[in-house]
Design goal:
Elements lengths: L1 H10 L4 E4 L8 E6 L5 H11 L4 E4 L1 H7 L4 H6 L21 E7 L8 H14 L5 H8 E11 L9 H11 L5 E6 L9 H11 L2 E4 H8 L1
Length: 215
């Protein structure tokens, strides 16, 4: 069963690849646990994946911090932006996006060092005794690290939920860094993702395998 390898890989701080499904986005994300972030891993995602580098957080942790889905924030505002609010994506899901953040000690926020600092400190404070206070003391928004909030794979079957479920099943806090793997003009095909993983000795798993383990 590939999950045993995935679990040990995540616990050791290495990168894995997760493909959602042919009938959803049809995309693979490179990802790793947030506690193991380094500038070198951010560079890897930036160069080898090429999508948006995001930080996924479990729903309970997000609630503890007092953060919400950006679509809910827009909906509750009195701004004309309500007209633009995305209720559902093309593949049928509510977006997982929340606010974007920077740690107060970054400079521009976008460098590999800066994003690593933001993610590392976030992964530390969510496990502290006073996460909400530390979060509001140490971070500001908007920033260069988009937060994603998980809804649980029972409700949503995106990379956000798949990544957080892998963290949970590995006995790790629900904070994961993920980035879409892009090809020329579109998502990198599943076969090319598998080739990349074989070439770089990266574990690959499909969403269907995660659902089977969960069930």
């Amino acid at each position: 069963m590939p999950f045993n390898n995935i679990r040990s890989t995540l616990k050791s701080g290495k990168v894995i690849a997760v493909y959602d499904s042919d009938d959803r986005e049809g995309e693979a994300d490179l990802m790793f646990h947030a506690s193991s972030v380094t500038p070198e891993k951010i560079e890897l995602l930036r160069k080898d994946a090429g999508g948006l580098i995001c930080l996924a957080v479990g729903g309970e942790l997000a609630e503890n911090l007092g953060i919400s889905f950006i679509s809910d924030i827009i909906e509750s505002s009195n701004s004309q932006l309500k007209q633009m609010n995305c209720k559902k994506t093309a593949y049928g899901d509510k977006p997982a996006f929340s606010i974007s953040i920077n740690h107060k000690n970054v400079y521009t926020g976008i460098t590999d060092n800066d994003r690593s600092l933001t993610i590392k400190r976030f992964s530390e404070i969510v496990q502290s005794n006073a996460p909400k206070k530390l979060f509001f003391d140490e971070f500001y928004s908007p920033g260069h690290v988009p937060l994603l909030i998980g809804s649980g794979i029972e409700k949503r079957k995106g990379h956000t939920e798949l990544s957080l479920e892998l963290a949970r099943m590995s006995g790790l806090p629900q904070t994961m860094v993920l980035c879409e793997m892009l090809g020329k003009g579109k998502a990198l095909s599943k076969e090319k993702v598998k080739e990349y993983c074989r070439r770089n000795e990266i574990e690959f798993i499909e969403g269907s395998e995660i659902y089977e383990i969960k069930c």
